[in-house]
Amino acid sequence: MAAFQLVRPTRAGAVELKNINKWYGDFHVLRDVSLSVGEGERIVVCGRSGSGKSTMIRCINRLEAFQKGSLSVDGQPVGEGLASRAEPGRDIGMVFQHFNLFPHLTILENCTIGLTRVLKMSRRDATDRAMALLERVRIPEQANKYPGQLSGGQQQRVAIARSLCMSPKVMLFDEPTSALDPEMVREVLDVMVSLARDGMTMICVTHEMAFARQVADRVVFMDSGQIVEVAPPDVIFKEPRHRLARDFFSQVLAA
Predict the structure, then answer these.
(1) Nearest 5 degrees, angle CA 188-CA 97-CA 150?
(2) 127 and 114 in contact (C-beta within 8 Å)?
């Protein structure tokens, strides 16, 4: 079985957001958000509930429209709104809080459906790739089971494998451990740490500060739809410059 290989962006700027603005009706949810993520960089995004973290990464993955600003992934522009979304962002993988697996499909079928229907890969080649990725997340023995037969941690690892099957250049994680029991968190974080060590470009919304300290190149703190402060974890955890960041990290690090 062929070894899994990460797909690397062809340009230094894997993700570029410039003055992104988004409204839900009259509610201004993202305010002039600008962020540049380099190839192979690991970014952790944190902040209080409602600060715009998930909305920002959903804009990157074209799941949410933005109304003003510019966004590019691997040098390719992503237009405002969703009308420009002819292709469903195959260069970006995303792992959600609640797994989003198809309950009526086996684990293997969950991983191969995108390969056969979107990439038009043969069933044999799709199966080979999916099994390699299930091996990568350490659950190949679960291939013929259904999601309901797996623990939450195992389902989240399947969700990671499914995203990796499409050979994304960037992986987005939206609170991937927040729906898990504490004993299952570590197994998911271990897979994410392994991906980070292999050089995958990652943007992760999480409150797992130990994970951020271990793998993040930079930590982004958001509040009220704005990026308030960006710094390496050792700097932002010990000496955040902004008052809002100091208040936030003093609470989460003391928990």
Answers:
(1) 55
(2) no
Residues of the chain with pLDDT under 70: 1-12, 79-90, 255
Token couple for 1: 């079985």
Sign, CA torsion 2/190/100/164: negative
Determine contact, residues 23/65, Cβ cutoff 8 Å.
no
Handedness of CA 80, 81, 82, 86 (dihedral sign): negative
Phi then psi dihedrals of residue 94, to 5 deg: -140, 135
Question: Which helix (DSSP H) or strand (DSSP E) does residue 95 occupy?
Answer: strand 92-95
SS3 string, 107-157, reads: HHHHHHHHHHHCCCCCHHHHHHHHHHHHHHCCCHHHCCCCHHHCCHHHHHH
